[in-house]
């Protein structure tokens, strides 16, 4: 991992994500690409692209630059190479494009407020980033003065198409010397016996030499409740899930998490694209 992208709207949530990215950057000797997407009316975006910029567009660009300078002066960024990037396009595609342009290895994003978990993944720009990103996306909800991962929940159905994402999860876990808790959630609609589940998980991991893991089969009303409840039970530091492009996250967080659970989902989540 050499390059991390952090989208920012200069909010507290974005700062929380940037602080975690800074810790990762120091640990892995990475550069950070700090991306701000300007919300401009279409005619002003056109004006910027033809260099006949309207005063309003120039004003917003200048303002963004000032705010960048304030962020860049933060003590927690000392010693890190940070690239300032502004895109006059406030859509998720700006995030993906910037990643491709700069060969970014990971996106670290903030999530807003108590309803953030659901909002983060359903119908928001962030959900689209997670859905369309080819690289891991780490979603940060709170401030982490010292971002460590000792207990990492990897939730999966342990079917073959998830194998590549497990390899990425293992690499991430190794970088923190973390234990992976392999988790399969059984629900009434999708039930397999403990023996069947164990067999499936063991077959899934047999090609990997990584041995710092536990196998867990957990029963709950829904998959998402099972993941959140299990993670709470073991006090996990991070939840990892695989995403299947369009189907992935919307399928995973299908709006069935109660507000209460959403409020308690304060753990960081990392997504890996299948």
Automatic annotation (TrEMBL):
Please state the span of the N-terminal signal peptide per the UniProt entry.
none
InterPro entries from the xrefs? Rossmann-like_a/b/a_fold (IPR014729), Universal_stress_UspA (IPR006015), UspA (IPR006016)
In what residue span(s) does the UspA domain sit?
Answer: 1-141, 224-272
TM region(s), chain numbering: none
Pfam families according to UniProt: Usp
The record's similarity note reads: Belongs to the universal stress protein A family.
Q: Could you identify this protein by its name? A: Universal stress protein UspA
Say which species the protein is native to: Aquaticitalea lipolytica
